[in-house]
């Protein structure tokens, strides 16, 4: 049989993609038989609020079971555009500047495929959620990790990012708040980075899926703190804010000339987003904010608990996350790589975490703990972590 790149008909592009390192821990945990505390989860532990589920049910019962327009239901795009216009003070056109996607993940995939040519670079400040790396590879582009300095909890460093922007840069991914570090990009840093990107004709991919889960003031939208918003592609999602990860609804918004092209890919890959789920998303945007605020309050109180509790454990530290539901814990005092540490935590202490290296080489020496779990389980997980630290390193 004819071999292709040494393998049986697997394209080079796909062959090049490595399995995510977070996945390794999921798989090991799935095989493990015991009372595990799950602190690796990247999704809210809450159920989708009832009025959102009800809206999908009603829509499906009333016959909303057919294809929708490729870019999404106009009513949903109008609700998204209205919100976005309020948040940015810009006039967002629902007809040409918003596309409804299968989660934030598809929005990023579409954006990268639309703006990056094979061989061009996609810059990714790390530690970062790894999907844009594989998405860039799938587009034939070259993902370039730009490591943020670990001091001060990986506070974004605009100079390092700007220095990495060059004539081959097609896009710069800015995730704010960040998964895993919880850092929010300050507006001055954003302004400088977008300006540098614009000078090089590169787009900024503004991933804001955790924007509503911030614990200080909600940060300004990235596109609203720059004079070059025509170079910003905004990505957001219903997944985290509304506890809707499994519904798969997100959106991409940006200039009409780019968004018009995006739908070409959407058409050949997914046609449109699940119709009842789009109705659920309309209810999420237009319905009661109460359940949303209650979830956010719960995340805030867990975050305070986690930060306090970690403060009482010797040899480890965490910069309090400004947003998202992760604590990126410095465990560099322990022996071994972050993967080895995560495996010891799993096998010897029954706590599942994500190793820092899953978020880029600069994430070594860290593990990510998610507080998308109930408070008692988080407390048990942190007790177990403390016993590992004290057993391996002794008292402070
Ligand atoms: C930073 C970041 N962006 C985007 C996503 C995509 O989520 P979804 O596709 O469910 O909207 C995630 C999910 O973990 C994320 O952490």
UniProtKB/TrEMBL annotation:
Its EC number is 2.6.1.-. Belongs to the class-I pyridoxal-phosphate-dependent aminotransferase family. Residues 35-383 form the Aminotransferase class I/classII large domain. Keywords: Aminotransferase, Pyridoxal phosphate, Transferase. The keyword Oxidoreductase does not apply. GO terms for biological process: amino acid metabolic process. CDD domains: AAT_like. Its cofactor is pyridoxal 5'-phosphate. InterPro entries: Aminotransferase_I/II_large (IPR004839), AspAT/PAT-like (IPR050596), NHTrfase_class1_PyrdxlP-BS (IPR004838), PyrdxlP-dep_Trfase (IPR015424), PyrdxlP-dep_Trfase_major (IPR015421). This is Aminotransferase. GO terms for molecular function: pyridoxal phosphate binding; transaminase activity. The keyword Aminoacyl-tRNA synthetase does not apply. Homodimer. It comes from the Archaea. It is an enzyme of class 2 (transferase). Gene3D superfamilies: Type I PLP-dependent aspartate aminotransferase-like (Major domain). It comes from Natronomonas aquatica.
């Amino acid at each position: 049989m004819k071999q292709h790149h040494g393998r049986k008909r697997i394209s080079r592009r796909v062959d090049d993609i490595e399995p995510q390192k977070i996945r390794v821990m999921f798989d090991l945990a799935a095989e493990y038989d015991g009372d595990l505390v799950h602190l690796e989860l990247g999704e809210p532990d809450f159920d989708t609020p009832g009025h959102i589920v009800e809206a999908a049910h009603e829509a499906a019962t009333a016959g909303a079971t057919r294809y929708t327009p490729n870019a999404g239901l106009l009513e949903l795009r109008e609700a998204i555009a209205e919100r976005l216009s309020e948040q940015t003070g810009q006039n967002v056109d629902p007809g040409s500047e918003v596309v409804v996607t299968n989660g934030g993940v598809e929005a990023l995939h579409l954006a990268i495929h639309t703006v990056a040519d094979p061989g061009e670079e996609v810059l990714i400040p790390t530690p970062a959620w790894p999907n844009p790396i594989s998405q860039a590879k799938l587009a034939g582009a070259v993902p370039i990790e730009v490591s943020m300095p670990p001091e001060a909890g990986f506070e974004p460093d605009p100079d390092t990012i700007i220095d990495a922007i060059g004539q081959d840069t097609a896009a710069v991914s800015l995730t704010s708040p960040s998964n895993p570090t919880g850092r929010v990009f300050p507006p001055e840093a954003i302004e400088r980075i977008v300006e540098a990107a614009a000078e090089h004709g590169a787009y900024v991919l503004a991933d804001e899926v955790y924007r509503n889960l911030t614990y200080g003031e909600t940060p300004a939208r990235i596109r609203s703190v720059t004079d070059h918003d025509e170079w910003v592609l905004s990505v957001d999602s219903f997944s985290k804010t509304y506890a809707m990860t499994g519904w798969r609804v997100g959106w991409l918004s940006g200039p009409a000339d780019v968004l018009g092209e995006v739908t070409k890919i959407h058409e050949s890959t997914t046609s449109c987003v699940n119709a009842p789920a789009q109705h659920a998303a309309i209810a999420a945007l237009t319905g009661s904010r109460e359940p949303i605020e209650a979830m956010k309050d719960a995340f805030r109180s867990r975050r305070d608990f986690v930060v306090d509790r970690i403060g009482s454990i010797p040899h480890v530290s965490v910069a309090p996350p400004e947003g998202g539901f992760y604590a990126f814990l410095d465990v560099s005092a322990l022996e071994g790589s972050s993967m080895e540490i995560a495996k010891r935590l799993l096998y010897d202490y029954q706590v599942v975490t994500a190793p820092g290296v899953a978020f880029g080489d600069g994430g070594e020496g860290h593990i990510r703990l998610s507080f998308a779990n109930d408070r008692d389980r988080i407390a048990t997980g942190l007790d177990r972590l403390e016993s590992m630290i004290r057993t391996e390193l002794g008292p402070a």
